[in-house]
Amino acid sequence: MPRKPRLLVPGAIYHVYCRVARGEFVFGDLVEAEAFIETVHDVRDRDGLSILAWALMNSHYHLVIKTGSVPLWRSMARLQGKVARRHNRRRRYLGRLWQSRYKARIIDSNQYFRQVVAYVHLNPVAAGLVSDPAKYIMSGHREAIGRSRPMLLDVKSLLAAFGEPDQDRARNAYLEWVRLVAEERWLQNGIADLPWWQDARHTDGIVDAGRHDDAETFDGKRLDDERPLLELDELAIRFQQASGYDLSRLASRCRKDRLTEGRIEMTAIAVGRFGHRVSDVANLLHKNPGTVSRWLTMADKQSLEDGTYRRHLDDVDRAISAPARPKVIK
C-alpha cells in the first residue's frame, strides 16, 4: 500500500515525534541519549532549523521544529538515519531502530504553539518519571527557565510566544503557563487526541490540504506556502534563468570547475530544496546517480561551513520559487 502524501510547508512549525521499535528503552542509556542530542544539534545547524521545545524519553522523542528552506522530510531522514546507524554500530545490531517513520503535525496558531511546548516539556511528568519538569535533564524545559545552558533550544524564539518584551517576565509567563497546562486533562491523552492533532485525518499526515488559508505561526508570520510544486523539467529551466548556468553545458561531458560548481548547485536545489529524486536529477544531467549523491553531500557540507554559500542557495531558491520570471543571481 503506498504511503499517504505529506504536505510540507517551508518556514512552518511542526510537532514531530517517533517511537523506538518494540518500545525498547534505548534512550534510557545515557550514551544513546547524548548521541541523539548531538545528532539533533548537528542537523539543526546544518539545515537551519530552530528547536522550540524538545523532550527525549526512554523509548521516544518529541521535537517542536521551525524549518528553514530545507524540507522537513530531508532533515528528519538525516536525523533518524544517522541516529539508527550510530546506534546499530555501537551495539552491533542489525535491523531497524525506529517503529515507523516519524509523525508530524503543523502548528498554525499561537494557542497550539503554547500548548504543544507545554505538552512536550511536561511529557516526563505525565509519564510519572518526575514530579517537576525542571528535574528532568533530557528536555528543553531547564534551558527555557535558565537552569542549564542551551543545548538545543532556541530560548529567545520560544519565550517570544509569551508576549513579554522582558526575558525574565517572559520566562515567568512561560512557567505559569506550564503550571496551568499541567492541570489539563488532555495532557494524558494519546497523540491523536491532543488538541492540535484532533482534526488530522491520519497521524501520518503533516497538514491537511484544507487547513485555514489565514494560518499564522506563533510569531505572527504567515506560513510560507508560496513555494511552487515544480516538475523537474520546469525547475531546471527556472534554475537556468536564476543561476545563469546553461543546462546543455551542465549535461555535457565537460569537466570544467565552473560547470561542476553548477551541477552541485543544481543538485542542492533540485534534491535538497524541492525534493526531487537523485536518480531523476542524474538522468537530467546525464550523470551517474552516485556522482549526484556525492554532489549533494558536498553541497550540504559547504552550506554548513560557508554562510555565504548557504545564503546564495537561498537567493537562487527564492528566485526559482517566485511567480514571476526568476532573476539571475550573481
Structure, explained:
Strands 2-3-1-4 form a four-stranded antiparallel β-sheet, sandwiched between helices. The longest helix has 20 residues, at 72-91. It is of the alpha+beta class. The chain has helices spanning 30-47, 72-91, 110-121, 123-126, 141-144, 155-160, 167-181, 232-243, 247-250, 257-273, 278-285, 289-305, 307-321, and strands at 13-19, 50-56, 60-66, 103-107. It contains 13 helices and four strands. The protein has two domains: 13-193, Transposase IS200-like (Alpha-Beta Plaits); 232-321, Chromosomal Replication Initiator Protein Dnaa, Chain: A. It is globular and about 65 Å long.
Strand content: 5-15%
What's the gyration radius in Å? 21 Å
User: For this structure, what is the CATH homologous superfamily of the largest domain?
Assistant: Transposase IS200-like
The CATH topology assignment of the largest domain is Alpha-Beta Plaits
What's a concise summary of this model?
It contains 13 helices and 4 strands. With 330 residues, the protein is α+β, with helices and mostly antiparallel strands.
Key traits:
330 residues, alpha+beta, 13 helices, Chromosomal Replication Initiator Protein Dnaa, Chain: A, disordered N terminus, Alpha-Beta Plaits, 2 domains
Secondary structure topology:
Blueprint: E1 13-19, H1 30-47, E2 50-56, E3 60-66, H2 72-91, E4 103-107, H3 110-121, H4 123-126, H5 141-144, H6 155-160, H7 167-181, H8 232-243, H9 247-250, H10 257-273, H11 278-285, H12 289-305, H13 307-321
Antiparallel strand pairs: 1-3, 1-4, 2-3
Helix pairs in contact: 1-2, 8-10, 8-13, 10-12, 11-12, 12-13
